[in-house]
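Input:
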Amino acid sequence: MLSDLLQFSIDALTLGSLYALMALGLVIVYGILRLVNFAYGELIMVAGYTLYLLGGSPLPWLVMAVMAIVMAIFTGIATELVAFRPVRERSVTAVLITSFAFSTLLQNAALLFISPRSRQVPLPDLFSEVVQIGEIIVPVRNLVTIASTILLLALFALILRRTVLGMALRAAASQFRMARMVGVPANLIISTAFAISGLLAGVVSLLWFGRIGSVVPGIGLEPLLVAFIATVIGGMRSLPGAVIGGYVLAMIDTGFNYLLPQDLLAFRDAFTFSIVIFILLWRPQGLMAGPATGQRT
Amino acid sequence: MLEVHGLQVCYGAIQAVRQVDLEVQQGELVTLLGANGAGKSTTLLSIAGALKSSGGRVCFEGEDITGISPEQIVRRGLVMVPETRDVFADLTVKENLRLGAYIRRHDLVGFRKDIEWIEELFPILINREEQAAGTLSGGEQQMLVIARALMSRPRLLLLDEPSLGLAPTIVEQIFRMIEKLRQSGLTILLVEQNASQALRSADRAYVLSLGTVAAAGRAEDIASSSDLRAIYLGA
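Output:
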């Protein structure tokens, strides 16, 4: 019984860490622009293909990992420049369309230039090792996932609290126009948000591909969906809410994995979403309220 | 120092500012009066770059700043305090002040000096340094947004209705503070509905009506011309 509980906790925390990072990457942009970046999942795809393309090279894995993250950051900034900045001041619909378009463009580029079939990404040996904790056997990659997420979240919180840029990001999330009127450049803030989004997507991709092992052009859909649901649960504009939403969603998912009988397991998502509906009936604004006021920018 | 020529601003099909010409000289306290909807706030927001004008020209210290982004205008030494009292509610008082000094964020020595100066002007804020700005009272929030604007060391301050919705004793405090700032050499363009208060402190005044300048002159003259008072100031 105790070991079941431990097993469940580690599984839920591992998945929750991934979901939390995915959700945070989406909400950091949404919080400031009030716009969902539909090309967010493709950041993860780009990082995955970067790993795949570097796969044959003699580089140490850590170098490949850093390059994958850098590519995700770069693609994040590119999304802003291509899909958001030119149309940002026009209309919400325009940005929805351009971000969808950019997402499709990246996916099709992967289909065309690489392959519609899945490709193995290189992974370090550490990711396939296991350790024994008490009576249970735990893959090391799960512990790496949990630890690196905690580290990243702590770092992120520190930057938001202690640096002027972090303060500016928080200010812009509630009062964008006012932030500009004290001299904070709008473009700098927005680009920074997209860069952070890319960084988070890059780290997620390493941990996510550590679990699934290969990349396909459509890989970005699930992370986008997960991130979206987690942020809806947590509160669309709250950063801590996104993290909590991620962990809650993972707990529900993992719980059903354990509880549902074999023949119902295929319908797990339906059960999960029913719970999500109940959460939203109970708290329509999400678990955490976002920062006060704020018009769309 | 500031010259506005033929300014026009539209909200969609509605023209809020039709034709505004005004100027502010170095060291002056100029007030912009007028009834609700006369276009006062719109004029200020447009000067500060937060609203795009549809016509006219704004010059600051001899340079054309029409159409420049608000963040660049702050850098040139022109900062606005909007009437909506937009404190960054989730940030502490100190963090608000840090962001006020954003354009000089690397000047930590200057920052500390300015904090001392703010402490003199608004002693109440410093006691609340670590408090979230959203939890301050209306009067304290007003002081904070003015203090935050001062942290950028502006040469021209645009103040939009600093007395709006505040208790009379606080209004007095705020006007005393405006007086002090002006004596320290800061140039101020003040929008007020509280016309008699504003006219008492100001050097010159403009009266806006339906988006145009209906009267302009020395503050005493505007204050004593009874028909203007009746029409625009409701006195």
